Amino acid sequence: MSAYIKVLSISSSVIAVALVFSLFVHSSAPIQVPPGDEVEISLFQKNYSVHALPIPDELYFAGERVPLEKTYVREGFDREMLVNTYWQSQTLLFLKRANRYFPVIEPILASEGVPDDFKYLALIESGFLERAVSPAGAAGIWQFLAGTARDFGLEVSKEVDERYHLEKSTAAAARYLKSAYEKYGSWSLAAAAYNAGIRGIDRQIGRQKVDSYYDLLLVEETSRYVFRIIAIKEIFSNPQKFGFHLGVDDLYPVIETYDVEVKAPIADFADFAQSHGATYREIKDLNPWLRETFLSNSSGKKYVIKVPKPGAFLVPGPKED
Questions:
Q1: CATH of the domain at 189
Q2: Active site residue: 38, 64, 125, 182, which one?
Q3: pLDDT tens track for 28-55
Q4: Predicted model pTM
Protein backbone atom coordinates (compact mmCIF):
# COMPACT_ATOMS: atom_id res chain seq x y z
CA MET A 1 0.00 0.00 0.00
CA SER A 2 1.44 3.39 -1.02
CA ALA A 3 1.91 6.25 1.42
CA TYR A 4 -0.82 8.22 -0.40
CA ILE A 5 -3.32 5.39 -0.02
CA LYS A 6 -2.43 5.03 3.67
CA VAL A 7 -2.99 8.76 4.30
CA LEU A 8 -6.27 8.72 2.38
CA SER A 9 -7.43 5.66 4.32
CA ILE A 10 -6.59 7.24 7.68
CA SER A 11 -8.28 10.51 6.67
CA SER A 12 -11.43 8.71 5.57
CA SER A 13 -11.52 6.70 8.81
CA VAL A 14 -11.26 9.85 10.93
CA ILE A 15 -14.07 11.51 9.00
CA ALA A 16 -16.22 8.37 9.26
CA VAL A 17 -15.76 8.32 13.04
CA ALA A 18 -16.71 11.99 13.18
CA LEU A 19 -19.87 11.31 11.16
CA VAL A 20 -20.95 8.44 13.39
CA PHE A 21 -20.24 10.47 16.53
CA SER A 22 -22.27 13.38 15.23
CA LEU A 23 -25.11 11.08 14.23
CA PHE A 24 -25.58 9.72 17.73
CA VAL A 25 -24.79 12.89 19.67
CA HIS A 26 -25.80 16.00 17.76
CA SER A 27 -25.14 17.59 14.42
CA SER A 28 -27.01 20.72 13.58
CA ALA A 29 -24.25 22.31 11.52
CA PRO A 30 -22.62 20.71 8.46
CA ILE A 31 -19.33 18.96 9.06
CA GLN A 32 -16.37 20.79 7.55
CA VAL A 33 -14.57 18.54 5.08
CA PRO A 34 -10.92 19.33 4.29
CA PRO A 35 -10.45 20.66 0.71
CA GLY A 36 -9.60 17.94 -1.75
CA ASP A 37 -11.09 15.12 0.29
CA GLU A 38 -13.27 12.77 -1.76
CA VAL A 39 -15.67 11.83 1.07
CA GLU A 40 -19.28 12.70 0.28
CA ILE A 41 -21.67 13.67 3.06
CA SER A 42 -25.36 13.20 2.35
CA LEU A 43 -27.85 16.01 2.78
CA PHE A 44 -29.49 13.86 5.44
CA GLN A 45 -26.33 13.83 7.53
CA LYS A 46 -25.77 17.55 7.07
CA ASN A 47 -29.19 18.35 8.47
CA TYR A 48 -29.56 15.55 11.02
CA SER A 49 -30.32 16.61 14.58
CA VAL A 50 -31.46 14.65 17.64
CA HIS A 51 -34.04 16.27 19.86
CA ALA A 52 -35.67 15.55 23.20
CA LEU A 53 -39.31 14.50 22.87
CA PRO A 54 -42.28 16.30 24.40
CA ILE A 55 -44.00 14.58 27.31
CA PRO A 56 -47.80 14.89 27.19
CA ASP A 57 -49.63 16.55 30.06
CA GLU A 58 -51.83 13.49 30.55
CA LEU A 59 -51.40 9.87 29.58
CA TYR A 60 -53.64 6.83 29.94
CA PHE A 61 -53.11 3.11 29.59
CA ALA A 62 -56.20 0.90 29.22
CA GLY A 63 -58.30 3.72 30.65
CA GLU A 64 -56.06 4.12 33.72
CA ARG A 65 -54.23 7.38 34.33
CA VAL A 66 -50.42 7.25 34.22
CA PRO A 67 -49.00 9.32 37.15
CA LEU A 68 -46.56 11.44 35.13
CA GLU A 69 -46.13 13.83 38.07
CA LYS A 70 -43.77 11.26 39.62
CA THR A 71 -40.18 11.60 38.43
CA TYR A 72 -39.53 7.89 38.03
CA VAL A 73 -42.74 7.45 36.02
CA ARG A 74 -42.03 10.41 33.78
CA GLU A 75 -38.43 9.34 33.19
CA GLY A 76 -39.41 5.70 32.59
CA PHE A 77 -41.85 6.77 29.90
CA ASP A 78 -39.34 9.24 28.43
CA ARG A 79 -36.74 6.47 28.11
CA GLU A 80 -39.06 4.23 26.12
CA MET A 81 -40.19 7.10 23.91
CA LEU A 82 -36.58 7.91 23.04
CA VAL A 83 -35.58 4.29 22.46
CA ASN A 84 -38.54 3.50 20.23
CA THR A 85 -38.50 6.79 18.33
CA TYR A 86 -34.80 6.72 17.53
CA TRP A 87 -34.62 2.99 16.84
CA GLN A 88 -36.25 3.95 13.57
CA SER A 89 -35.92 0.72 11.60
CA GLN A 90 -37.63 -1.41 14.24
CA THR A 91 -40.48 1.01 14.88
CA LEU A 92 -41.00 1.49 11.15
CA LEU A 93 -41.38 -2.28 10.81
CA PHE A 94 -43.83 -2.26 13.73
CA LEU A 95 -45.97 0.29 11.90
CA LYS A 96 -45.88 -1.71 8.68
CA ARG A 97 -46.70 -5.08 10.28
CA ALA A 98 -49.45 -3.74 12.53
CA ASN A 99 -51.61 -3.12 9.46
CA ARG A 100 -51.75 -6.90 8.95
CA TYR A 101 -52.23 -8.03 12.56
CA PHE A 102 -54.29 -5.36 14.34
CA PRO A 103 -57.44 -6.11 12.31
CA VAL A 104 -57.30 -9.70 13.61
CA ILE A 105 -56.37 -8.90 17.21
CA GLU A 106 -58.66 -5.93 17.88
CA PRO A 107 -62.06 -7.67 17.56
CA ILE A 108 -60.89 -10.63 19.65
CA LEU A 109 -59.76 -8.37 22.51
CA ALA A 110 -63.06 -6.47 22.26
CA SER A 111 -65.13 -9.65 22.37
CA GLU A 112 -63.19 -10.82 25.43
CA GLY A 113 -63.63 -7.49 27.23
CA VAL A 114 -59.93 -6.61 27.23
CA PRO A 115 -58.91 -2.99 26.45
CA ASP A 116 -57.70 -2.32 22.93
CA ASP A 117 -54.35 -1.02 24.27
CA PHE A 118 -53.24 -4.61 24.80
CA LYS A 119 -52.71 -5.07 21.09
CA TYR A 120 -49.48 -3.15 21.70
CA LEU A 121 -48.46 -5.75 24.28
CA ALA A 122 -48.48 -8.39 21.55
CA LEU A 123 -46.43 -6.08 19.35
CA ILE A 124 -43.68 -5.50 21.92
CA GLU A 125 -43.64 -9.18 22.86
CA SER A 126 -42.86 -10.49 19.39
CA GLY A 127 -42.58 -7.62 16.93
CA PHE A 128 -45.41 -9.47 15.14
CA LEU A 129 -43.03 -12.21 14.09
CA GLU A 130 -45.30 -15.26 14.21
CA ARG A 131 -42.47 -17.76 14.62
CA ALA A 132 -40.73 -15.82 17.39
CA VAL A 133 -39.24 -17.96 20.18
CA SER A 134 -37.59 -16.48 23.27
CA PRO A 135 -34.49 -17.94 24.97
CA ALA A 136 -36.86 -19.22 27.69
CA GLY A 137 -38.98 -21.06 25.13
CA ALA A 138 -41.91 -18.64 24.96
CA ALA A 139 -43.38 -18.83 21.46
CA GLY A 140 -45.64 -17.06 19.01
CA ILE A 141 -46.91 -13.53 18.76
CA TRP A 142 -48.09 -13.56 22.38
CA GLN A 143 -44.98 -15.38 23.62
CA PHE A 144 -46.63 -18.11 25.68
CA LEU A 145 -44.62 -20.66 27.62
CA ALA A 146 -45.88 -24.18 26.91
CA GLY A 147 -47.31 -24.80 30.38
CA THR A 148 -49.17 -21.49 30.52
CA ALA A 149 -50.50 -22.02 27.00
CA ARG A 150 -51.99 -25.37 28.00
CA ASP A 151 -53.46 -23.83 31.16
CA PHE A 152 -55.37 -21.37 28.97
CA GLY A 153 -56.69 -23.90 26.51
CA LEU A 154 -54.09 -24.07 23.76
CA GLU A 155 -52.93 -27.33 22.22
CA VAL A 156 -49.15 -27.70 22.39
CA SER A 157 -47.64 -30.81 20.82
CA LYS A 158 -44.96 -31.80 18.35
CA GLU A 159 -47.34 -31.51 15.40
CA VAL A 160 -49.74 -28.78 16.55
CA ASP A 161 -48.67 -25.79 18.62
CA GLU A 162 -51.44 -23.24 18.97
CA ARG A 163 -49.12 -20.71 20.55
CA TYR A 164 -48.42 -19.88 16.90
CA HIS A 165 -52.14 -19.65 16.04
CA LEU A 166 -52.92 -15.95 15.91
CA GLU A 167 -56.61 -16.06 16.71
CA LYS A 168 -56.47 -18.80 19.35
CA SER A 169 -53.40 -17.39 21.10
CA THR A 170 -54.97 -13.92 21.17
CA ALA A 171 -58.08 -15.31 22.86
CA ALA A 172 -55.89 -17.21 25.35
CA ALA A 173 -53.85 -14.10 26.12
CA ALA A 174 -57.07 -12.17 26.69
CA ARG A 175 -58.23 -14.81 29.17
CA TYR A 176 -54.91 -14.59 31.01
CA LEU A 177 -55.10 -10.80 31.19
CA LYS A 178 -58.69 -10.88 32.42
CA SER A 179 -57.79 -13.33 35.16
CA ALA A 180 -54.93 -11.06 36.26
CA TYR A 181 -57.20 -8.01 36.17
CA GLU A 182 -59.80 -9.79 38.30
CA LYS A 183 -57.06 -10.43 40.86
CA TYR A 184 -55.48 -6.95 40.92
CA GLY A 185 -58.20 -4.61 39.69
CA SER A 186 -55.52 -2.91 37.60
CA TRP A 187 -54.73 -3.33 33.91
CA SER A 188 -51.18 -2.07 34.37
CA LEU A 189 -50.53 -4.77 36.97
CA ALA A 190 -52.21 -7.30 34.67
CA ALA A 191 -49.76 -6.31 31.94
CA ALA A 192 -46.83 -6.56 34.37
CA ALA A 193 -48.04 -10.02 35.43
CA TYR A 194 -48.05 -11.07 31.77
CA ASN A 195 -44.32 -10.36 31.76
CA ALA A 196 -43.26 -11.41 35.27
CA GLY A 197 -45.98 -13.91 36.16
CA ILE A 198 -48.70 -13.54 38.76
CA ARG A 199 -46.57 -15.13 41.48
CA GLY A 200 -43.73 -12.73 40.71
CA ILE A 201 -46.00 -9.70 41.01
CA ASP A 202 -47.64 -11.09 44.16
CA ARG A 203 -44.22 -11.52 45.75
CA GLN A 204 -43.23 -7.92 45.05
CA ILE A 205 -46.55 -6.49 46.23
CA GLY A 206 -46.18 -8.42 49.49
CA ARG A 207 -42.56 -7.33 49.90
CA GLN A 208 -43.00 -3.65 49.05
CA LYS A 209 -46.53 -3.15 50.46
CA VAL A 210 -47.80 -1.08 47.52
CA ASP A 211 -50.37 -2.11 44.93
CA SER A 212 -49.59 0.18 41.98
CA TYR A 213 -47.40 -0.92 39.09
CA TYR A 214 -45.90 2.55 38.94
CA ASP A 215 -44.75 2.40 42.57
CA LEU A 216 -43.21 -1.09 42.46
CA LEU A 217 -39.47 -1.57 42.14
CA LEU A 218 -39.21 -4.45 39.66
CA VAL A 219 -36.51 -6.12 37.61
CA GLU A 220 -35.54 -3.96 34.65
CA GLU A 221 -37.47 -5.87 32.00
CA THR A 222 -40.75 -5.66 33.93
CA SER A 223 -40.12 -2.10 35.12
CA ARG A 224 -39.81 -1.03 31.47
CA TYR A 225 -42.58 -3.26 30.16
CA VAL A 226 -45.71 -1.16 30.58
CA PHE A 227 -43.86 2.04 29.70
CA ARG A 228 -42.79 0.47 26.42
CA ILE A 229 -46.40 -0.46 25.62
CA ILE A 230 -47.49 3.10 26.37
CA ALA A 231 -44.65 4.59 24.31
CA ILE A 232 -45.50 2.45 21.28
CA LYS A 233 -49.15 3.46 21.66
CA GLU A 234 -48.14 7.13 21.78
CA ILE A 235 -46.01 6.80 18.62
CA PHE A 236 -48.78 4.93 16.81
CA SER A 237 -51.28 7.65 17.72
CA ASN A 238 -49.40 10.13 15.50
CA PRO A 239 -46.45 8.58 13.66
CA GLN A 240 -45.67 11.71 11.63
CA LYS A 241 -45.24 13.73 14.81
CA PHE A 242 -42.31 11.44 15.66
CA GLY A 243 -40.81 11.43 12.18
CA PHE A 244 -42.39 8.29 10.70
CA HIS A 245 -43.90 8.86 7.27
CA LEU A 246 -45.73 5.99 5.58
CA GLY A 247 -48.19 5.82 2.76
CA VAL A 248 -50.93 3.23 2.42
CA ASP A 249 -48.80 1.27 -0.06
CA ASP A 250 -45.98 1.06 2.51
CA LEU A 251 -48.08 -0.96 4.96
CA TYR A 252 -48.03 -4.75 4.86
CA PRO A 253 -51.39 -5.94 3.53
CA VAL A 254 -53.74 -8.47 5.06
CA ILE A 255 -53.42 -11.74 3.15
CA GLU A 256 -56.83 -12.85 1.91
CA THR A 257 -57.62 -16.45 2.78
CA TYR A 258 -60.41 -18.99 2.97
CA ASP A 259 -60.82 -21.80 5.50
CA VAL A 260 -60.51 -25.51 4.87
CA GLU A 261 -61.78 -27.85 7.59
CA VAL A 262 -59.93 -31.12 8.02
CA LYS A 263 -60.76 -34.08 10.27
CA ALA A 264 -58.53 -36.67 8.65
CA PRO A 265 -54.75 -37.04 8.57
CA ILE A 266 -52.73 -35.06 6.03
CA ALA A 267 -49.83 -37.13 4.74
CA ASP A 268 -47.89 -34.28 3.13
CA PHE A 269 -48.55 -30.55 3.35
CA ALA A 270 -46.76 -29.96 0.04
CA ASP A 271 -49.36 -32.15 -1.68
CA PHE A 272 -52.14 -30.50 0.35
CA ALA A 273 -50.92 -27.07 -0.76
CA GLN A 274 -50.73 -28.00 -4.43
CA SER A 275 -54.22 -29.47 -4.33
CA HIS A 276 -55.46 -26.05 -3.20
CA GLY A 277 -53.47 -24.00 -5.70
CA ALA A 278 -50.90 -22.88 -3.13
CA THR A 279 -47.31 -23.63 -2.17
CA TYR A 280 -45.97 -25.38 0.91
CA ARG A 281 -44.47 -22.10 2.09
CA GLU A 282 -47.75 -20.22 1.72
CA ILE A 283 -49.65 -22.82 3.74
CA LYS A 284 -46.97 -22.83 6.43
CA ASP A 285 -46.75 -19.02 6.57
CA LEU A 286 -50.51 -18.77 7.04
CA ASN A 287 -50.61 -21.64 9.55
CA PRO A 288 -47.37 -21.58 11.57
CA TRP A 289 -49.13 -23.62 14.27
CA LEU A 290 -48.74 -26.67 12.00
CA ARG A 291 -45.27 -27.73 13.09
CA GLU A 292 -44.58 -30.78 10.93
CA THR A 293 -44.68 -31.61 7.23
CA PHE A 294 -47.71 -33.80 7.95
CA LEU A 295 -50.66 -34.03 10.35
CA SER A 296 -51.32 -37.39 11.97
CA ASN A 297 -54.65 -36.44 13.58
CA SER A 298 -55.37 -39.99 14.72
CA SER A 299 -58.21 -38.74 16.93
CA GLY A 300 -60.10 -37.18 14.02
CA LYS A 301 -60.09 -33.72 15.62
CA LYS A 302 -61.37 -30.87 13.47
CA TYR A 303 -58.75 -28.33 12.43
CA VAL A 304 -59.26 -25.23 10.30
CA ILE A 305 -56.44 -24.47 7.87
CA LYS A 306 -56.10 -21.11 6.15
CA VAL A 307 -55.54 -21.29 2.40
CA PRO A 308 -54.63 -18.22 0.33
CA LYS A 309 -57.12 -16.93 -2.20
CA PRO A 310 -55.76 -16.80 -5.77
CA GLY A 311 -53.20 -13.99 -6.08
CA ALA A 312 -53.26 -13.25 -2.33
CA PHE A 313 -49.48 -13.19 -2.09
CA LEU A 314 -48.94 -11.07 -5.21
CA VAL A 315 -47.83 -7.46 -4.75
CA PRO A 316 -50.40 -5.12 -6.37
CA GLY A 317 -49.20 -3.44 -9.53
CA PRO A 318 -48.92 0.34 -9.98
CA LYS A 319 -52.24 2.13 -9.89
CA GLU A 320 -53.45 3.67 -13.12
CA ASP A 321 -54.06 7.42 -13.20
A1: 1.10.530.10
A2: 125
A3: 334 454 554 444 445 445 566 788 888 9
A4: 0.84
